[in-house]
Amino acid sequence: MKRAIVLAGGGAKGSYHFGFWKAIRELGIDFQIVTGSSVGALNGAMMASGLYESGLEMWSSIKTPDIIETSPSRLSEVIDTEGIAGALKSFLGDLGESAVNVKMDPFPLGELIGKYLDEKLLRESGIEFGIMCSEYPNMKTHPVTLKDIPYGMLADYLLASSTVYPSMEPKEIAGRKYVDGGYSDNFPVNLALDMGAEDIIGANLCANGIEAKYETDYSVRVIRPWFDLGPTMEFVPEIAKRNMALGYNDTMRSFGKLDGTCYTLEKGECEKMQAEFEKFCVDMLIKCGAVSLSEKSSYHRSLAVKGLCEKRKQRIGLMDKKLAVVCAETAAEIFCVDPTEIYSGESLGKSILAELKPFEEKEENPMAVLFQSAKPLNYKLGQIGNFDSRDVVAYLTNLWLELPDSESPNRDLRTLCRFIPKEFFASLYISFLKTKGE
């Protein structure tokens, strides 16, 4: 069976690939094909060559001037670029404005390729390698494999695959012009299939660009980041280090070596957290009126939980096993807990509570002020979007902690369950942590 690694484009986000690669190495996964687009082609060439340490050194040190030289674009002197920048933003994301207002010279990138890549080593590696470029000006896909590239011209095709037009001039090779692979296929699964792949593992950076559709009966496992990987053309060692940690964690979770859905937990922690949280969760959902007594045995399929699943893009059928971790992760994300660490359930809980503390200690919570006013409920619900989610969670947590002593269901909690399911379940989990710690 021929296994392929597919690496997507995304500029500085490409540091994520090296966390992915670290995990692949630890898992002992071998591969016979590598394909990539843009920065995925550059990283893919290193991966096919086995240059892990060199690539790690590069990503741990490079800064933006090491990749491109920038200068103001003269395009705005000829035409109004504002509309073009807006149109490109929907396609190129944060790169859209600079694509027309900044001129980029890829000369430093060429120097970097010469420093860190060894074409001879790549050709002797035994790994098949493919690069995705886009033809200019028609923007059609132009896949090219290493065996079709004349010796000594690898760097030219890697530069072509990374040419961000119009900020960079199209790369001319043998009388034909090419631009970034992201203009035609930023995640070249089809190229891997055409090269004979029967099993595919891909690292998709979720960057802007076109991704060609693919159809196959073979296995395609795609690792994607949950958290933002930073600006596309901002090469900063600190951001790269963070992205590598995320790439490693996401990959190890995907292969079941670590627990969690977006945050990363030690193996076995999800099951432990669910066992501890379940009875508390069911009792409180029934107490506040979000779940009826008849739904007790199937609480994880209730409308309340369904709302959370829709917001968190989770499968409701798994909530009997994962609701605790999804609630915990929702709280962690709201309070900006560091996603690069590998946590136990206990350490994640402590991190959430530490970030919550400043919001608990506020003299006046704006949510409390609003909901204690005589304003109509519809007005109050309409104002929630104006508040910091952390203030909302802090307020709801207090409602949960007061609930066991209440004579009747809390109307606010029951209503807010439908309107703000993330804050509702995050605060429910935090109230569990506080009750557990008493």
Please give a handful of descriptors for the protein shown:
438 residues, alpha/beta, 20 helices, elongated
How would you describe this protein?
It contains 20 helices and 12 strands. By secondary structure, it is an alpha/beta fold. Helix 14 packs across helix 15. The protein starts with a strand and ends with a helix. Residues 74-89 have low confidence and may be disordered.
Estimate the global geometry from the Cα principal axes: elongated
| Strand percent estimate | 5-15%
Report, as a whole number of angstroms, the end-to-end distance: 55 Å
- Tally of extended strands? 12
Topology:
Elements lengths: L2 E5 L8 H12 L5 E5 L1 H11 L2 H8 L4 H4 L1 E4 L9 H11 L3 H6 E4 L1 H10 L2 H5 L4 E9 L4 E5 L8 H8 L9 E3 L2 E4 L9 H6 L4 E5 L15 E5 L13 H18 L9 E2 L3 H20 L14 H10 L6 H16 L7 E2 L1 H16 L5 H6 L5 H7 L5 H14 L8 H9 L1 H17 L1
Parallel strand pairs: 1-2, 1-9, 2-5, 9-10, 11-12
Antiparallel strand pairs: 3-4, 5-6, 5-8, 7-8
